[in-house]
Amino acid sequence: MTDRVTKAGGPALLFEKVKGSNIPLLINAMGSYERMSMALGGRSLDEIAHEIEELTRPKPPKSFMDKLKFIPTLMKLSNFPPKMVSHAHCQEVVITDNPSLYKFPIIKCWPKDGGRFI
After folding, report:
1. Cα gap 93→82, rounded to integer Å
2. What is the mean pLDDT of the chain?
């Protein structure tokens, strides 16, 4: 079902009652350009791609004025290094009692698959 919906460009699917897990499963959340754009702040993907290209392939400044114009780009790049934090969103749920990957909603994609794969 999820394969058909994804390939047809269908909606995101939220499964709230997953067999063998008490954790909901969201599939195809980024399955359209519109949803990816919303997740990235609502800007167009072309605009975001252009910004990434400018940051990853900057043109070397040739004049003093070019160097001054390059300062905002350097400021943007300064936000990319990893930041150390004391509490992260991924630490909101900590399973200490009998931890197991089987508690997570790992799907079995096809009936003849050997099992559930991450």
Report:
1. 22
2. 85
**Mean of pLDDT values over 27-40:** 87
Nearest 5°: the CA angle 52, 57, 62 is 130
Quick one: average pLDDT of 42-57?
Answer: 85
Res 107 pLDDT > 80: no
- Domain assignment present for residue 93? The answer is no
State residue 8's pLDDT score.
Answer: 84
pLDDT at residue 63, rounded to an integer: 92
**3-class SS of residue 25:** strand
Dihedral Cα 97, 101, 105, 111, nearest 10 deg: -140
Tokens 């900057």 label which residue?
58
User: Are 74 and 60 in contact, with CB atoms under 8 Å apart?
Assistant: no
CA-CA distance, 44 to 65, in Å (whole number)? 30
CA–CA separation, 71 vs 76, rounded Å?
Answer: 9
In a domain, 45, yes or no: yes
What is the extent of the structural domain holding 49? 1-73+103-118
Tokens 């394969």 found at: 3
